[in-house]
Amino acid sequence: MSTNFTLPPAVQKVVAELEIQRKKIVSNKLQGWSFIVFGIICFVIGVVLGLAILAIVGFIIAIPGAIILFRIGESVSNYKSRFKQEVIGAALNSVDKSLTLDPNRGIVESEFTSSQLFTTSPDRYNTEDLISGKIDKTSFYFAEVHAEYKTEVQTKNGRQVTWHDILKGIIFTADFNKNFNGVTVVRPKNFGSKIGAWFSKNVYSFGDKNVVELENENFNKNFVIYSTDQIEARYILTPAMMEKINDLNQRSAYTISLSFIDTRMYIAFPLDKNYFEPPVFKTLLKPDLLDDDMSVLTFMYDIVRELDLNTRIWTKQ
Amino acid sequence: MIIVAILAIAVLIIGIGIYNSLISKKNQVANAFSAIDVMLKKRFDLLPNLVETVKQYMEYEGDTLTKITELRGKALGTNVSESDKLALDQQIGSAVKGLMVSVENYPDLKANQNFLNLQSTWTESEEQIAAARRNYNSSVTTYNNAVMMFPGNMFAGMLGYQPIAVLETAEEERKNVSAKELFNN
To answer: Is A213 near chain B, with CB under 8 Å?
Structure first.
């Protein structure tokens, strides 16, 4: 997706400076790794041929490599932080002056869990790049989240731990325009939830009593809806709202999940890549540098308008 | 012998399951209807307040206000069937909608905070009733499917359960609520 965003001259200057910093980082990385690779080769040859001196030399050569790599860590984080603050910051400003980015904050794990977007609780949780703003009466924020759970299998070689994604992507949350008291969750339809919904519909005393059957066929095809209050779920998910969510879902690569809780709405968008990060091994000086970031940014920003969250004709202001 | 007994028990359990499921679906329909009733009551309760507030400002809408008061009286009267109540609600709804449109001619009223609160509570009640009606229709559809499909239809015949008609959706409810339409006429 291409966006017509051109950086203001002041930011172009920052990008040019960052490009110099980036090149330095790349050359330092190459230097560091060449020492290490060369050192390892010497060490291996030394061990294979039984030449102790060569092995020791190899070991010694590798040390400065490790030091160089260790020392550029700080420079890399400075590079990333400047990119986020100054370049992404400028991009945010071009969309809306109220948008702010805090690279070190995100959506905290307790909020992720209490949003009830997912049923599995994470064993490993990372979040960054919190972007917040306000459009008219609706305040919102979103952040990158990587939540995983682990499974352990006992094998003859010991325990084998495997990590699985619960969500790798962005969680968007906004103040909802209607008052409600219960919890309504819209989850992608998968095999398990399909069976649960079938049982709840067809067999008494089996399955989930909280499943909400809605009239929109397209919506039902993609999602299973759970709610603590059948009427409230329909009060939130009006025919118009369902259509809007369908549209939003269609424009997302993977099926989204939504939850309505504590007068807020949460939307989880699974994504393939980490956004708002500067390239290290590719140049910054290309016109499409921010295209992906900008398309995600405008996508999130447009949600408030698309879901009509600023329509405050009900008692909630 | 054991196999026969197991089969008999299985059939019995399935039978009880279907029977209970039918009863629960029928109760669900009644429950969904009473939810609409509660919402309607809430909405009708807003009317006296609305009429009082509006009366002070609107000089030329006396007829509409009297009509709304009358309709409310009818709807809350005894011996009003549920379908009559719904029909009265629709009449009240369109009368109030007409009233809201004429508010445009009374700038003082448009600025009255009490009126604005009533207006948003009214719109909210409209959406809540629409939600309750949709909930009712969904319960009816589930119930009707159970009553008309095999094996539920066997039990339904025995219990004397008949399919129930769903509520027609009013044309206004199908439309998206838009702030523009409501306030910027």
So the answer is: yes
